[in-house]
Amino acid sequence: MKQHTTPLIITKNKTVILEKIQLNDTTYNEQWIQDICFNNSSILPIDEIEPSFGGCISICKELKTESGPCDFILLNEEGFITIVEFKLNSGGIQRPGEKLLDKF
Fold it and tell me: pLDDT for 44-69, tens place per residue?
C-alpha cells in the first residue's frame, strides 16, 4: 500500500503536480540544492532541530577553510551561527560529520 500521496502546489489559479526525480539526474546536483537553500533559508527546519538557532539568514556561501569549502553559513538575530554542509553522495570513506568537524 502506498503511504504517501503525490505532492501538489496549489495557487489561486492553478494546481501543479510535482514529479519524482531520479537521483542520478545531473540537473539536480549539490550546487542546485545549495542555491535553493541559500536563497530561501527559511525552508531549512533549523528551529525544529534547535529553537535557539531559528530565524536564520544566509550570510556566506562556499566559505574557504583548511579542510575545504563549507557550503554555507547562516546567522540569526541572537548571533548564533549555523553551518550547513550538504551531502547528496558522501563518496570516499569520510563521513559528512567528520568532514564538517575537520573544517573548524
Answer: 899 898 999 989 999 999 988 887 88
Rounded CA-CA distance 47/63 in Å is 23
Sheet holding 81-84, edge to edge: 57-63, 70-75, 81-84
Alpha helices in the chain (DSSP H): 30-39, 46-49, 96-103
> In angstroms, rounded to a whole number, what is the distance separating the alpha carbons of residues 20 and 93?
29
Please answer whether residues 56 and 77 qualify as being in contact, where contact means their C-beta atoms are separated by less than 8 angstroms: no
- Within 13 A of 3's CA, how many CA atoms are on the CB side? 0
Number of H helices, E strands in the chain: 3, 5
Per-residue confidence (pLDDT) for residue 93, from 0 to 100: 45
Q: How far is CA 103 from CA 30, 47, 76, 84, 96, in A?
A: 19, 24, 21, 12, 11
Rounded Cα–Cα distance for residues 68 and 64 (Å) = 6
